[in-house]
């Protein structure tokens, strides 16, 4: 199977057949083995196992309470063809983020060895709070506080410098417990799969050949803008469904789901975060939050516009592939193209 993807979060790199299989994951997973795993890994006795009301596509997730009243989150696959080393990468990324003052989930243990169990899993400390995508009862001012804090989180992540660019090498993560990108430049990462994705959108009838050529030229002409000397840790999935907040203080208690983490330009997080579903405009407060801690580059708006478009392109492909492309989502492509008059 192809290994180098631009974006992999939420099953974006899965085939239709794989997605159909994953929709049955809770029926196929043996929940009783969790007790054995907790005894083996943490020497803890399980008291209660609960399926969350909100679950993602690629993994089974359960909340686990042990008899000493500690709360955990258990996350596993169904035993993919190859060990899911990305679970190790997620732990390395969240550990680095926590060391640099970023509120995040704490992954206690990862096992991709397949020695004792025929699948890969993580055990995390359970992260508490409300999820703004599914339960937000505050005002716009309260929501703006969340966006401002996300901007500050991106600024803190920008201080975590990484080696090379793009998604991280699974081989190096597994063997050396280090995060090293697979590509030699940020430009190489940003254009990864770009031409094929644009061709996919042409074939579906949503852009024409002239637009295809103009978009491709735009990105190649933007090489000096995109290329940076050193990459930073980029979450690249800062959506409302990927963080929790305290319902009274509206303080973010933690971000999670590091599946799409990469080494890139911090502005990629600023450009991409507002492309997810938001209750109110997000970009302004993201920028304010970032700039409350450090200065953005002078050309940041140009970068935001380009990274927003790059993100929308893979999302349109994802939406077409899984028959999810609504008029609202298609309008986002039109708006992302507008600054470039394409």
Task: Give the helix/strand layout.
Blueprint: H1 16-22, H2 25-28, H3 33-42, E1 46-50, E2 60-66, E3 71-76, H4 86-99, E4 107-111, E5 121-125, H5 140-158, E6 161-162, E7 165-168, H6 170-176, E8 181-183, H7 186-190, H8 194-203, H9 209-221, H10 223-226, E9 231-234, E10 243-245, E11 252-255, E12 262-264, H11 267-272, H12 283-291, H13 300-321, H14 327-337
Antiparallel strand pairs: 1-2, 2-3, 3-5, 4-5, 6-9, 7-8, 9-12, 10-11
Task: Explain the overall architecture.
This is Aminoglycoside phosphotransferase domain-containing protein. It holds the Pfam family APH. Residues 61-274 form the Aminoglycoside phosphotransferase domain. The chain is α+β, with helices and mostly antiparallel strands and 342 residues long. The protein folds into 2 domains: 9-125, 2-Layer Sandwich (Phosphorylase Kinase, domain 1); 140-340, Aminoglycoside phosphotransferase (APH), C-terminal lobe (Aminoglycoside 3'-phosphotransferase, Chain: A, domain 2, Alpha-Beta Complex), CATH 3.90.1200. Helix content is 41%, strand content 15%. It has helices at residues 16-22, 25-28, 33-42, 86-99, 140-158, 170-176, 186-190, 194-203, 209-221, 223-226, 267-272, 283-291, 300-321, 327-337; strands at residues 46-50, 60-66, 71-76, 107-111, 121-125, 161-162, 165-168, 181-183, 231-234, 243-245, 252-255, 262-264. A hairpin with a 6-residue loop joins strand 10 (243-245) and strand 11 (252-255). Helix 5 packs across helix 12, helix 8 (194-203) packs antiparallel against helix 9 (209-221) and helix 8 crosses helix 13. The longest helix is centred in the last third of the chain and has 22 residues, at 300-321. The two termini are 34 Å apart. The model has no long low-confidence stretch (mean pLDDT 95).
